[in-house]
Design goal:
42% helix; Calcium-transporting ATPase, cytoplasmic domain N; single chain; Calcium-transporting ATPase, transmembrane domain; 14 helices; 7-stranded antiparallel beta sheet; Calcium-transporting ATPase, cytoplasmic transduction domain A
Length: 456
């Protein structure tokens, strides 16, 4: 096989892609070939930055300049046998390190938990049979079936599509799902316009398709982004820069005053050099603000606690202060500032305007007319309108434990949530068997479905 990363898969016919990857579109790969490719390409997982061991992470808490000054001061007080001062200084140093270590450890565990959650399974054709496999076991050349709600496990060249739409907002920022096709495109087509490709990490919102895997793991577009982030250099935060600057100035000031005091004592007083040295050391230790690191760490830890209540994970304590120093945030809107959720807020039916309360996909809220909650049976036109929204729909809104999970197009899910608010459940759809449909097309600006109303 050629070097896969150098091939413009979107510019080739699907049949040629299958031939180049030595895979049978109907039979898929056989078991021996899968094992060979697993050894060659590795598992379909994105590499993550190697985490430091717990011991190293703990000792790194002591590398702050101000903490190093405290360690030096504590060592000097120990030499002078000032045990109370030594205990206080080292107690502050250790407490500071423990607080920072615990916070970073908790944040790391939370991030690992999120990584486990995003793992998915997909239907793959192998040895002529359909098998549901973890995404990590998928290799280049695999034939993968895609249905509404599936997460794309790797980069694929689409072989067959039927009304297939994919939400690619994590790569392109576009909140509207992209309708896919199978014909080839010019090799210089930008990523967002490659309608015959499906990219790892994106989500199928509608339709059905079959794709040939062309890239896995770090070779996927998502993997390339991840590798760029791993290679990014860690920079100092505004707080650590200021503390470092303050520590250097403080150290210079202490050394300067100590030298002046020692010289003054030798020239003016009659005390011995040993006595003066001991006094200068005691004076230097007294000047050091040993409570500052602890106060700073505790304050930042409180900030991290407030952020955690807002479901934000802060790995490094100084990052809290960095956020507070931010003056300009450049961000993609979809999924960042917004949640890619839509809500029905008003319905005009039967010559009446109804207002719908509630936000997002949570089916909690009421439908009101003239500020009064309505009974759906008293408004048949509104009821028919909401039932139509349920039937002319390819998405799902599923309750899992205490949360609702949306599968499909955000606009269609919003229609389902609106029907729920009128006590019209999705189970109603089973009473109206779908016979045929006209899928949504941008030039038609509508979707239509034909149903059997069970003889009513």
């Amino acid at each position: 096989m050629q070097e896969l990363s150098k091939i413009s898969w979107h510019s080739l016919p699907a049949e040629q892609v299958a031939e180049m990857l030595r895979t049978d579109p109907k039979q898929g790969l056989d078991s021996s070939e899968v094992n060979n490719r697993l050894q060659k390409f590795g598992e379909n997982t994105i590499s993550v930055k190697k985490e430091k061991s717990s011991i190293i992470s703990f000792f790194l808490q002591f590398k702050q300049p101000l903490v190093l000054i405290l360690i030096i001061a504590g060592s000097i007080t120990a030499i002078l046998q000032e045990w109370i001062d030594t205990g206080v200084i080292f107690g502050v140093v250790v407490a500071n390190a423990i607080i920072g270590f615990i916070q970073e450890h908790k944040a790391g565990k939370a991030i690992q938990a999120l990584a486990r959650i995003v793992k998915s399974e997909n239907v793959v054709i192998r040895n002529g049979e359909k098998t549901r496999l973890p995404s990590s076991e998928i290799v280049p050349g695999d034939m993968v079936q895609l249905r509404s709600g599936d997460k794309i496990p790797a980069d694929m060249r689409l072989y067959y599509t039927k009304d297939l739409k994919i939400d690619e907002s994590i790569l392109t920022g576009e909140s509207i799902s992209d309708k896919k096709r199978t014909e080839g495109f010019p090799s210089n087509t930008i990523l967002a316009e490659r309608k015959n490709m499906a990219y790892g990490g994106t989500l199928v919102t509608n339709g059905y398709g079959i794709g040939i895997v062309v890239h896995t793991g770090d070779d996927t577009e998502t993997g390339k982004i991840s590798q760029t982030m791993i290679k990014a250099e860690e920079i100092e935060t505004p707080l650590t820069r200021r503390i470092s600057y303050f520590s250097k100035k403080l150290l210079l000031a202490i050394l300067g005053l100590s030298i002046l005091t020692f010289v003054f004592g030798i020239l003016v007083t009659q005390r011995t050099a040993t006595e003066l040295f001991m006094e200068v050391v005691a004076l230097s230790v007294a000047v050091i603000p040993e409570g500052l690191p602890a106060a700073m760490t505790i304050t930042l830890a409180i900030g991290v606690g407030h952020m955690a209540k807002k479901n934000a994970i802060i790995r490094k304590l100084p990052a809290v202060e960095t956020l507070g120093s931010t003056t300009i945030i450049c961000s993609d809107k979809t999924g960042t500032i917004t949640e890619n959720q839509m809500t029905v807020s008003e319905i005009y039916a039967g010559g009446k305007l109804f207002r719908v309360s509630g936000t997002g996909f949570q089916p909690t809220g009421k439908i009101k007319h003239n500020q009064v909650s309505i009974h759906i049976e008293d408004h048949q036109t509104l009821k028919e309108c909401l039932i139509t929204g349920l039937l002319c729909n390819d998405s799902d809104l599923i309750q899992k434990e205490n949360r609702w999970e949306a599968k499909g197009d955000p606009t269609e899910v919003a229609l389902i949530a609106a029907a729920h608010k009128a006590n019209l459940k999705q189970t109603l759809v089973k009473s109206f068997n779908r016979i045929d449909e006209i899928p949504f097309e941008s030039h038609l600006q509508f979707m239509a479905t034909l149903h059997d109303d069970a003889g009513d």
